[in-house]
Amino acid sequence: MPAREHDGFVQVTGFRIYHRIFEPPSYLGTVLALHGGPGAHHEYLLPLVDLTDHGYRVVFMDQLGCGKSDRSPDPSVYTLEHNVEEVEGVREALGLGRIHLVGSSYGGLLALAYAIRHQEHLKTLVTIGGLADVPYTTAEMWRLVRELPAETRAVIEKYDRLKEYHNPAYLKAVEEFYHRHLCRLPVVPPELIRALAETNPDVYERMNGPNEFTITGTIKDINLTPRLPTIQAPTLVTGGRYDEVTPNVARQIRDHIPGARQVVFEESSHVPFWEERAAFMGTLVVFLKAHD
Q1: CATH code for residues 4-289
Q2: Statement: the pTM of the whole predicted model exceeds 0.90
Q3: pLDDT per residue over 169-196, tens digit each?
Q4: What percent of the chain shows pLDDT beyond 90?
Q5: Is 105 part of the annotated catalytic residue set?
Q6: Dihedral (Cα; 62, 64, 65, 68), 10-degree rounding
Q7: Does residue 7 carry a catalytic annotation?
Q8: Percent of the chain whose pLDDT exceeds 70
Q9: Which of 9, 62, 178, 281 is the most buried (most CB within 10 A)?
């Protein structure tokens, strides 16, 4: 039988947080998936529904200010700390028990922050293009910018100096970076296109900045690395060979979490669950079942 899909809202810290659940008739465990951005929504993570074929209930949520969840009249609540409260609030309100927590991109940072605070509720922890040290990640992204063709690099550097982040020439050059390091597929999945197009700029620009490699928002100085050794949950750190959040960033996470394992998908950038879907899901299923 196919998985049953249902959705709804739960109240967390006075806001309605949207969730969407795919539930097979019986399941081994529950995967809670955290999207990136910050400011995007869950839809680009829908390949994770493949896990229902392997006996997992898959739960998605839209963080505050994202997707179908409430917007806040007070933007000061758009923080990593508040997002951690939202994840715990959703887990508790839905009665999910101990979960497999999977975080993509900023969702990986969020998953690590959640694990530091609430790891007693985790069976496993998985990051996909996730990060722990934002300043180091930013430096790695700019290393990738410097490896772009000279003309493209010059345009990015010029308008970055001028802080003209919406100049058409700059945006075109940024697209080249995204093609190499965000999604390398010749046809970008419509779910990913929608998640990018519908990203809430109030959240993205406040927390992150004008684009992926120009991180000037409230997360710019966050570094969870010194606290990673406190994480005892079995951890899988994944990403693509060409990921904007580079394998060096993933290695830093792996090296600081006891027993963590790293897998690099050689034909992928930031979304290996799209770019190498079968290989990614196979790796994830083996890891999850080893800890159920």
Answers
A1: 3.40.50.1820
A2: yes
A3: 999 999 999 999 999 999 999 999 999 9
A4: 96
A5: yes
A6: 40
A7: no
A8: 100
A9: 62
| Catalytic option among 105, 121, 133, 268 | 105
Q: What is the token pair recorded at 58?
A: 């898959």
| Residue in 69, 121, 243, 256 annotated catalytic | 243
Q: Is the pLDDT of residue 147 over 70?
A: yes
- Among candidate residues 121, 181, 256, 270, the one labeled active-site is 270
Is a pLDDT exceeding 90 seen at residue 268? Answer: yes
